[in-house]
Amino acid sequence: MRILLVEDDEMLGEAVRDGLRQESHVVDWVRDTGAALAALSTASFSALVLDLGLPSSDGFAVLRWLRQERPSHPVSS
Predict the structure, then answer these.
(1) What is the pTM of this model?
(2) Could you list the pLDDT tens digit for every one of the 77 residues in the chain?
(3) Distances (CA, A) of 27 to 56, 64, 67, 73
């Protein structure tokens, strides 16, 4: 499974990425909203692990974009 991880905290991001990789997932890790939107625009992911408290713009901006641009993608909280 290919997963997009959006997390700005380096220690937390490394821990989540490493844990997911140990479960044989492919993880693309980005650290801000702009990079997340670029990744979602150009690649296909099975899941998104999203930090809602990002520094430049919060994760809710990513969720709003998903709802507008990819309304068929399921979102779970």
Answers:
(1) 0.91
(2) 999 999 999 999 999 999 999 999 999 999 999 999 999 999 999 999 999 999 888 899 999 999 999 888 777 76
(3) 22, 22, 22, 19
